Amino acid sequence: MPKEPKQRQDDNIPPPPQNNPRQCHFWVKRKRRYCHLPTKLGNKFCGEHLICDQEGKRRRIPCPYDRSHTVYEDELQSHLRKCNARPLPKQPYFSLDINCTLASSDSHTKIALSELPKEELDALIKKIEQWYDLLVPEIQTSVLDHPVLQKKMETLKNTKHAIQQASLLGHMEKLSLLPKDGCFIEFGAGKGELSRFVQAAVADDGSAVFILVDRKNMRLKFDSNIRAASDPSAVRRIWSDIKDLDLSKVDLIENKKVIAFSKHLCGSATDVTLKALVNLAKSTDHG
């Protein structure tokens, strides 16, 4: 007799949790499993999911500044004073959407792509692809290397990111973009590890300036390492969305050759970064 098809368990009805006192009881529906993070003894949920604990004596709520993390309700005011996502005072370089505008003709009505008829949208896409094929040459892959990453690679099992970092530094060196007295701006800096390697490649003697731009504050940053190997006043982290960043108002840039670099930018972030640099070139002598 043919076997009856296996009945799939209803996604809305999770199986009982494993018999493990440290197993978080939060069911991750998308992965169809329980959360792997451990709990404190006596708790059913890990710190990330304590908000789901209806039986706990202390209520956990989302942080008003960043809902991706939670905090005990009775510690909210204390948390808000030190939360890494708290709003910072307006800085001189903040200018709302300064890097989002493009010169355009007032005679043309702006239409959202989502509102275009399918035939017109298809024709537009075809036209863009034709111009791209005509004007943009084939991009050749060129993976370079740089000695400052050698020791790190020897200690890693997964060298993917280190290879990328070494290649970026190799290209910067090839293009003479590692001057000792340059102003190095890392966009989407994250923890700032790439800036730390740039500093090592420059063999900084205190003449260079390092600016790390990211809209989120990070833990375990490399900023202190960069400051320790340089003039601390020549290292600055800017917490800002790139779209709102007026580089002409950043005093460290003055009278310096600007070298902008990044490893983590998405397409739209790259667009506003390029616009920020164009605006800087227009407003100063950074041609």
TrEMBL record:
Biased composition (Basic and acidic residues): 1-11
Molecular function terms from GO: tRNA 2'-O-methyltransferase activity; zinc ion binding
Keyword presence, Disulfide bond: no
Family annotation (InterPro entries): Methyltransferase_TRM13, Trm13, TRM13/UPF0224_CHHC_Znf_dom, Znf_CCCH-type_TRM13
Enzyme class per UniProt: transferase
Domain CHHC U11-48K-type: 60-87
Pfam families assigned to the protein according to its UniProt record, in alphabetical order: TRM13 (PF05206), zf-TRM13_CCCH (PF11722), zf-U11-48K (PF05253)
Any one biological process term the GO annotation gives: tRNA methylation
Alphabetically ordered keywords of this record: Metal-binding, Methyltransferase, S-adenosyl-L-methionine, Transferase, tRNA processing, Zinc, Zinc-finger
Catalytic activity line of the entry: cytidine(4) in tRNA(Gly)(GCC) + S-adenosyl-L-methionine = 2'-O-methylcytidine(4) in tRNA(Gly)(GCC) + S-adenosyl-L-homocysteine + H(+); cytidine(4) in tRNA(Pro) + S-adenosyl-L-methionine = 2'-O-methylcytidine(4) in tRNA(Pro) + S-adenosyl-L-homocysteine + H(+); adenosine(4) in tRNA(His) + S-adenosyl-L-methionine = 2'-O-methyladenosine(4) in tRNA(His) + S-adenosyl-L-homocysteine + H(+)
Assigned EC number: 2.1.1.225
Biological role: tRNA methylase which 2'-O-methylates cytidine(4) in tRNA(Pro) and tRNA(Gly)(GCC), and adenosine(4) in tRNA(His).
Identification of the protein by name: tRNA:m(4)X modification enzyme TRM13
